[in-house]
Input
Amino acid sequence: MSSTFGTLFRISTFGESHGGAVGVVVDGCPPRLEISVEEIQAELDRRRPGQSQITTARAEPDTAEILSGVFEGRTLGTPIAIVVRNKDARGSDYEPFKDKYRPSHADFTYDAKYGIRNWRGGGRSSARETIGRVAAGAIARKLLAKHFGTEILSWVSRVADISAPQPDPLKVSREEIEANIVRCHDAATAERMIDLIKSIKSKGDSVGGTVDIVARNLPTGLGEPVFDKLEADLAKAMMSLPASKSFEVGSGLEGTYLKGSEHNDLYYNTGERIGTRTNRSGGIQGGISNSEPITMRVGFKPVATILMPQQTVNQAGEEVELMPRGRHDPCVLPRAVPMVEAMTALVLADHFLRQQAMTHGAID
Amino acid sequence: MSSTFGTLFRISTFGESHGGAVGVVVDGCPPRLEISVEEIQAELDRRRPGQSQITTARAEPDTAEILSGVFEGRTLGTPIAIVVRNKDARGSDYEPFKDKYRPSHADFTYDAKYGIRNWRGGGRSSARETIGRVAAGAIARKLLAKHFGTEILSWVSRVADISAPQPDPLKVSREEIEANIVRCHDAATAERMIDLIKSIKSKGDSVGGTVDIVARNLPTGLGEPVFDKLEADLAKAMMSLPASKSFEVGSGLEGTYLKGSEHNDLYYNTGERIGTRTNRSGGIQGGISNSEPITMRVGFKPVATILMPQQTVNQAGEEVELMPRGRHDPCVLPRAVPMVEAMTALVLADHFLRQQAMTHGAID
Amino acid sequence: MSSTFGTLFRISTFGESHGGAVGVVVDGCPPRLEISVEEIQAELDRRRPGQSQITTARAEPDTAEILSGVFEGRTLGTPIAIVVRNKDARGSDYEPFKDKYRPSHADFTYDAKYGIRNWRGGGRSSARETIGRVAAGAIARKLLAKHFGTEILSWVSRVADISAPQPDPLKVSREEIEANIVRCHDAATAERMIDLIKSIKSKGDSVGGTVDIVARNLPTGLGEPVFDKLEADLAKAMMSLPASKSFEVGSGLEGTYLKGSEHNDLYYNTGERIGTRTNRSGGIQGGISNSEPITMRVGFKPVATILMPQQTVNQAGEEVELMPRGRHDPCVLPRAVPMVEAMTALVLADHFLRQQAMTHGAID
Amino acid sequence: MSSTFGTLFRISTFGESHGGAVGVVVDGCPPRLEISVEEIQAELDRRRPGQSQITTARAEPDTAEILSGVFEGRTLGTPIAIVVRNKDARGSDYEPFKDKYRPSHADFTYDAKYGIRNWRGGGRSSARETIGRVAAGAIARKLLAKHFGTEILSWVSRVADISAPQPDPLKVSREEIEANIVRCHDAATAERMIDLIKSIKSKGDSVGGTVDIVARNLPTGLGEPVFDKLEADLAKAMMSLPASKSFEVGSGLEGTYLKGSEHNDLYYNTGERIGTRTNRSGGIQGGISNSEPITMRVGFKPVATILMPQQTVNQAGEEVELMPRGRHDPCVLPRAVPMVEAMTALVLADHFLRQQAMTHGAID
Output
């Protein structure tokens, strides 16, 4: 159960979905960064269940408390512990199927691995675990913003087969994205997505899709070849989120259909720096950022919990029918947006610190 | 420059493509495993340049020497150092463009990050770095085979827009895959792929595509939630390979178009164990292996080196034309097969050891 | 600020002495271990300030709350978060010298390193940080006790120049040690030590000394050469405690006066196992436990806070006089006993898990 | 078998004493540092066996070869692999007692842990393993010298009961230390030490003692509370060396006899910086360097190999007599000097890089 992520900007999350609390310890945040509990809360509110008609109805305020590491509004350089109490945990909802393995959930594998399981909700496999990530991500994001004016934005680019038009990665704004409950930058597409999700929800079914991510205003030089290439750590970050199934960077899967003569990004002198005329590399070459925007796409499967009867087995290995209850998301994508942004911020902040060590450790 | 990978089965690679040698140190391999230099060499031979008409002509025998950690044919439990001398390094090939940034290569970002670069070849960003991975992977593979009869197979599933039919992941064999130089299990498709690559090569261009991977005969319980989920570590492993652009696990991107009622894998009792009737989860649920085959797909971009004139800039920031020379692969996919197999083996061996710690650390 | 310790049984502590709370997250504890908050509290009570006339008067109940990772009295294999609220924090005590550097404290170096400091108390350099270690240590100790009947005992072996007679490391008992407030196994010596500490306290001064530690009933094979030798990790563990100045293992410093012919531990067959007739190795050879008792000694300096005027400088670099206030220990040793026991347990539990990976990862 | 040390300046050593080669991979050294193989060789020559009448007669030239990471005399920022071939390995010397456990050696514990052992010499437990450390230490030392003019010096301060007078830590010089074969800064004491070692050697016995270490010209701020305190990492570094039994920092064990009023280091303004009038803290407060010289003492036991008959047991558990052969050091101390210097340099270089990350990661 490795709940620690990052080398220098390092987080450790804790907490089960229906235990006492969930939270995070951030170790390695540089000192003297201004941070308020409100800034952290703002990101948690974007992740919060019950925020709209198309998310789960679980009513969690998800109120963050900072236990350590911040003094008079600034970080101390010491571990920042943040805790969120579980309030609306209805463990009893899970009582009827506590020994039945929900299909495509982690019940069976947790039982097989640990020989014990908090059957009240998803335990650590629940999306509630990401509260700690989002809280920590708010700090990482602030650090990068202060240093470079870095902006990290994500939006829902596709729900099932409803795709949004590709925005200009340099211009897409948080305002556009947050303007609707599905978090799609394109208003017309958003409406169709919302209609689809509502329709799916009414049938007790669920639906997947993709989110796109851009990180812009970044320095050159982030990423540590060969194993800790920037895209490698970003891929791990995204694929560690519940329900993610695919990761693409830059031109992604589409780029693999091209010829080298079509795919290569040609360098030119922008007047201020060396840039590339296209950005199929997604801002990363050889595992190192080149100061073009970092672009990624992450695919999420349809949520495994559906309110339909399904065949499964129980702990005794007997084949049984399962009829789930509980409050769940018909589509994880709108709430995945703050999660992937947080994970992006955490990876970039970590590599920013690692790069400082190398740059300032070198002899000039 | 983080060249270490793995927690308990840990490798550290070293070496530039045109320096004295490349190699690896494997730390944490359990003792008493029978391993011969021939077994390691066999995997290196699959990765070797110059192995066929559709790979680079660089003539490297890539002969492995074991310097430590093996005694009388068995591992000691101590670090296993393996070294491969560079033989056919023609650094002078690179002289004409030593200060010109090759498009979509790592020249510019390495210069920006390190302020120095071994301009003779790709240095650490070269695919030669993967020699250490493949050598170490041969040991990891042996360990898993001995314990579980694990088989790890990869094949080229698509070159540009030529796709192979999907094989049965339980039946596809190494013999089928190794029967042709492009390493596609389907002979007819292989022929078309080879023709395409030869045609592309003759034009000095390059082409990308995908490889598929299956790992079968695995125990339940591998993978460490929440950050070191099995698919997260596999994603990082694959995205740390040169030229990889996308990673998919199980149903991957296609699965994100489905509804939950279509996507969920229903459990049943196989008579011997709890299995799933479909395997859209790709053998992993909640980050933990469920003993179904692990299935993945990795996309590789077209090789950046093309023998055509391209616009770029030099170290001084001046816009110049680049006409590459050197010996390069028109398509990385056939040689990527042993690389992705090695990375898969390394991740699984590491998680196997981690799982032993937990299982045998628990009170029964 | 690296607040994480251990490879597989890994703890992360957090909290300032006068912030909201202190605590710990334990990641990697095997599942299904029975543990109660009372068992954790029992160890915290031994560490608690205000427990006797010879410790600081700060009145902290140090009540532990388990936030996660335990379900129905047993560990889940998931992170165990434990938090202790600070109750009797009187930050205002520190107001008068908030900008004066207390001699041999960490005020100056924290300011120099971080450029900010929680001047209310010692912050992270306070012994309150060890609450997290002691709480986590209670779990590690339980794990070892369940597996091997391991006992980890420490006692005050010397205060200033008052030395206790060396007990038989196989027989010394917790009852003897806990029979007096200074935690010396020898009652007569304890009395003299207590008198000395009281006398020192009345003068506003402080005093140092040594604690001895024994860990018995341990398996052979713990310890990972070459850098993570068992004594190396134990040394790091002890030297990371506030105020520790020296570490010895086995024959320690005294042993360095002997000849090889006097120092070597001769092997013999105990009938049940291979043992050594003497134990100058302190239970560790080549960095690996040999199943003899592990014996160590740790020296602690006199507490830096003394209630006497001292010359120092302030943040502006001006030479000033400091007259400390606050509530402090005249001698850290009695409360160091549970700390060194906890650190010993943490190192041994971690190496126990690491050894399981190797043992069960090997082919038989 | 954890053979990796360091967080950012990270080394991995490999090699058995009588295998093909020993060596090291240094990962994380900043780029553009001038380093030559001669500088590395110079340190290896100080560690080399056969260097004088009072060391083992094994005739190893210990010639270093750099395989990677250095280009045109400067580091690339990529892994630096250094290899030393074993030349004078006489494994057959060990044949007669290959199944007898040498007292106070690691034969028994290696067998118990790994179930296999390279019985030709000490394998990884041999002091030959430190070749990699010393080679890497030469690079770390150069890095610190270039940045700060840091000097790291060690000398033999005691052999058995022959103690040298304490030198001024600011003035003791490498010339004084290297002026004699025992590496004691005081010529008269050195002579007595050498006589004692020769006498001990003639009897086939061995002898222990202490080395002292000073590191001067260091910046303020190195060290990462709470677990990676500078003295904690130094303690681990030293206690990971073969035969070390004790570690002291600053006033060490002697300081624990003092009162706080006697022990505290009073601050004053040196005119250039904030200094302390005494240095009982050994240059470290709260785990962080304060720019006073770092002072340490390490105790080494008498070498376990003595040329005298000893009672022991064999692999079958039978009690047998052992009469060792082979070529060994009667006293490890003169050769320990370059080892402890190297370990000091490695810890300081690592913390220097870690500190750069924090300092330059902070907002100004």
Summary: The CA atoms of residues 132 and 361 of chain C lie 32 Å apart. Chain C has one domain: 4-361.
